[in-house]
Amino acid sequence: MSGEKAGPDTDALAWFKSSYSAGDGGQCVEVATRPGTVHVRDSKDTTRAALAVQPTAWTAFVEFAAL
Q1: Contact 3/52 with Cβ under 8 angstroms?
Q2: Other CB atoms within 10 Å distance of the CB of residue 50
């Protein structure tokens, strides 16, 4: 899966946490989508750079993680 650090404009994105995420702040990521890009960041430290991947790479990751 190839990816790159997302630019500073990620603050303006609409971020979503998994419905499987517990409210206690465990091991979670947040995801935001834009045309042609899926942004992923650590929900515990949103000041760190987000990762940007192609939608096909994100789909492959999610399918693999669901196994």
Answers
A1: yes
A2: 24
CA atoms of 46 and 35, how far apart (whole Å): 21
Please return the burial class of 38, using the count of CB atoms within 10 Å of its CB with bins 0-12, 13-18 and 19+: buried
Q: How far apart are CA 57 and CA 60, in angstroms?
A: 5
Judge if pTM exceeds 0.85. no
Report CA 18 to chain centroid distance, whole Å.
10
pLDDT in tens, 40-64: 998 888 888 899 999 999 999 999 9
pLDDT band at 1 (very low <50, low <70, confident <90, very high): very low
Residue spans per domain, the chain: 3-65
Q: What is d(CA 42, CA 37) in angstroms, rounded to the nearest whole number?
A: 17
